[in-house]
Specification:
By secondary structure, this protein is an alpha/beta fold. The protein has twelve helices and 19 strands.
């Protein structure tokens, strides 16, 4: 029996922030777009849940209506301060020039998905696992776990750190020197949560990783721990156990969690960092977000980069169809657009990460000086924003 085949102009693999933004960027093009998601919305995604201030601006470049709608999200906690806690427990509060927010991925991703699925020429496939992706001369063929074949002239891989599109079509391999691992859980009733403040706790034995507390509505918090993958492997660290150990044994944190309740499982995830340049496109394909290793090397944040790259992928796809050019050389315009936007910042943040990792005294001294000297404080603010 022949398997059913669906024909599209473009297939987007993955309906997270990158995939949905790419779909939005293609919304009025008239191109037939297939959006494949292995789960069903609303679905959870393990993450720190931090949404940077520039995200509404990116959506605004696609449609001002999207920017207006994102501002109306109610299940969010606005953030204007980043609190750095040094290994010596000195506290430095850095005020952002613009306000971002924390929003559970269950909520935020579903918001973007609902915007995307309203596009007139979009067909959505939920609960659909991609088994493999094959590049032919004139098309890309996607085989799904539903014994269905989807074909398109172009594919956009937005399918995360373990991207099938990248694995099947690109030469990029996972490099632990440019990865971090993290775990996250939700807690209720953590004490002394400051208004509009995210917290990064740099502990002596875990540099350059950090323990975080991010505020959420209804007295909930996103709590997690992230470390470079090489450190995790070399020291054989169990991140779940280490996170609980921190909460139970670091005195100032133990006090804050004394009446707290963990209201979710501790879940882990891989972070492919944007601390190296890799090829993020090729003949008839582009990669976005985590699939393109675009995560902030210093903070582990990835939502903003995913949305930015998704927009560029959607825009470049339009050019490909206008010129009927899907060649490897022409796809490199997408790489240039993404790296022109993100590489300088990622390179700088990668350097910050390396400096922090040298020795606790470096971070302690920096924070001490910033607390005493306004000029140094302003320099740090400029560096981290």
């Amino acid at each position: 029996m022949q398997e059913p085949t669906d024909m599209f102009d473009i297939i987007i693999c993955g309906a997270g922030p990158a995939g949905c933004t790419a779909a939005l960027a293609l919304g009025s093009s008239g191109l037939r777009v297939g959006l494949i998601e292995k789960e069903r919305f609303p679905r959870d995604k393990v993450c720190g849940d931090a949404i940077p201030a520039y995200v509404p601006k990116v959506l605004n470049t696609i449609s001002p209506e999207y920017a207006k709608k994102i501002e109306k999200l109610t299940a969010r906690e606005n953030v204007s301060i980043c609190r750095i806690v040094a290994p010596n427990e000195k506290v430095l509060d850095l005020k952002y020039s613009e306000q971002g927010f924390i929003c559970r991925r269950m909520v935020f991703d579903n918001f973007l998905f609902e915007l995307a699925r309203q596009q007139p020429d979009l067909t959505v496939f939920q609960d659909t696992v991609v088994k493999n992706v094959i590049l032919n001369e004139n098309e890309v063929v996607v085989n799904t776990g539903e014994n269905q074949i989807l074909k398109a002239r172009l594919i956009i891989g937005c399918d995360g750190a373990h991207s099938i599109v990248s694995r099947n079509l690109s030469d990029t391999k996972v490099d632990l020197k440019h990865c971090s691992g993290a775990v996250r859980a939700y807690f209720k009733n953590v004490k002394d949560i400051s208004e509009e403040t995210i917290e990064l706790h740099f502990l002596k034995d875990l540099l350059p990783g950090y323990f975080w507390i991010f505020p959420l509505p209804d007295n909930h918090s996103n709590v997690g721990l992230g470390l470079p993958s090489q450190v995790i492997t070399a020291k054989k660290i169990n991140l779940r156990k280490e996170m609980l150990k921190i909460i139970d044994t670091v005195p100032y944190l133990k006090q804050r969690f004394s009446d707290a309740e963990m209201v979710s499982e501790i879940k882990g995830y891989l972070l492919p960092l944007g601390s190296r340049k890799v090829a993020i496109s090729g003949t008839r394909f582009m990669l976005c977000g985590d699939a393109a290793s675009l995560i902030d090397p210093a903070t582990g944040a990835g939502i903003g980069q995913a949305i930015s790259s998704g927009r560029y992928a959607g825009w470049h796809a339009l050019k490909c169809f206008e010129r009927n050019n899907f060649s490897n050389d022409y796809m490199k315009e997408y790489d240039r657009a993404v790296y022109d936007k993100l590489w300088k910042e990622n390179k700088r943040r990668s350097m910050i990460r390396k400096i922090i990792s040298i020795h606790p005294i470096v971070l302690n001294t920096t924070v001490n000086l910033a607390l005493k000297n306004k000029f140094i404080f302003k320099m740090i603010m400029k560096t981290l924003e």
